[in-house]
Each structure stands twice: as structure tokens, then as C-alpha cells.
Amino acid sequence: MKMGKRILVIDDNKDILDLMRYVLEGEGYSVITGRDSKPLRELHILCPDLILLDNRLADGSGGHFCQQLKADPSTRHLPVVLVSANTDLPGMATSCGADGYLSKPFNIRDLWELVGRFV
């Protein structure tokens, strides 16, 4: 059941954030957005069921933040999907411990299917 499932989307591109929010809320998810890593420091309050994390943020690398989340026993259980236009995204996702990846530009159907695998 999607209702009540919370997805944290972090991307420095406002248009991508707005698109993901629109699409995911339309599917019944509760969506929290951020344009930098600040929401990652508030996970105990936000309690997301899934994190969609852009690799390039103004305040650091999504891959680095993912590694930190996966190294912390209190957050390692959270599924993290790395989102990027990087050509080596599969390798990057594997090396940082991400649970999945989504290549930019992405197809809306791919976003739905990917999210559906985790929540």
C-alpha cells in the first residue's frame, strides 16, 4: 500500500524535484524534497521509506552521503537510490552501497517501477 509511504527526494534541480514530487504524489506517496544534504541530517524526524538522492549536490556528492548512510547502523536499512546523468552510474551506485540507481534523463515509467521495488 502506497498511502503513508514517505519518499525523500534530494536534487539541486528544482524542476526535477517538482516533477518527481508531482509524479510520486500522483501515485499516492508522501513526498519530502530537499535541494541539499540538510534533510539527511533530519532522517530521524522525516522517517522516509525511500531516499532518491542526486549524485551532484551543491554541498557534496550523493555517493559520499550514501556511503555515510550505509555505514551508520541507524540508517543503513533505508533504501537509497542514486540519481545521476553520470555515464558510470551503475558502478558509482555499487561502490557507494546504493540499493539502486536512476539515470537522468529518466522515463516516468522507470521512476514508478524503481520506486515500486522499494516501497
From TrEMBL:
<feature type="modified residue" description="4-aspartylphosphate">
    <location>
        <position position="54"/>
    </location>
</feature>
<protein>
    <recommendedName>
        <fullName>Response regulatory domain-containing protein</fullName>
    </recommendedName>
</protein>
<dbReference type="InterPro" id="IPR011006">
    <property type="entry name" value="CheY-like_superfamily"/>
</dbReference>
<keyword id="KW-0597">Phosphoprotein</keyword>
<dbReference type="InterPro" id="IPR050595">
    <property type="entry name" value="Bact_response_regulator"/>
</dbReference>
<dbReference type="Pfam" id="PF00072">
    <property type="entry name" value="Response_reg"/>
</dbReference>
<feature type="domain" description="Response regulatory">
    <location>
        <begin position="6"/>
        <end position="119"/>
    </location>
</feature>
<dbReference type="InterPro" id="IPR001789">
    <property type="entry name" value="Sig_transdc_resp-reg_receiver"/>
</dbReference>
